[in-house]
Amino acid sequence: MMFYSREMKPLRLEPLRQDEFEARIVAALEHQVEAPALPEDFSARVVAALPASLPRRSRWRAARTFSILSGVVLLAVMLWCAPRSVAGLQSPAFFVECAATAALAVLSAMVARFWRHI
């Protein structure tokens, strides 16, 4: 592997002696970089340059809206299937009502768990 200088000339790298190596490391560690000082009114100028803040708009919480809507739909399906169902898995209405009950239970558990985040 070849190493090049800033002028794109190949560098000849020779191994350093231990004392030269340590001297270079100490010199690099003791070297302090001077950062430019910021003017005193810098933060005031930055704040003045910012545009006026827009009025805060309320966020439409899609997950919350859809979870409430799907809960209402599942409840409507359960109420529609209730008078038509006969106990037994051969009845399609009973099967749909059981599936809607399970889905509503899972949805309720998820909404209760994540209500703050949705």
Name the features.
118 residues, mainly alpha, 54% helix
The helix tally amounts to 4
**C-alpha geometry:** elongated
Content of β-strand? under 5%
- Poorly predicted regions are none
H and E string: HHHH
Q: Termini distance?
A: 54 Å
Query: Radius of gyration, Cα only, in angstroms?
Result: 35 Å
Oligomer: single chain
Structural class by secondary-structure content? mainly alpha
Largest sheet, in brief, is: none
Q: Which range best describes the helical content: under 10%, 10-25%, 25-40%, 40-55%, 55-70% or over 70%? A: 40-55%
Mean pLDDT: 81
Please give the number of β-strands.
0
Q: Could you explain how this protein is built, in words?
A:
The chain is mainly α and about 120 residues long. The protein has a domain at about 60-115. The chain is about 55% helix and about 0% strand. It is built from four helices and no strands. The radius of gyration is 35 Å and the shape is elongated. The mean pLDDT is about 80.
Topology:
Layout: H1 18-30, H2 42-49, H3 62-81, H4 92-114
Helix pairs in contact: 3-4
In short:
The protein is mainly α and 118 residues long. The chain has four helices and no strands.
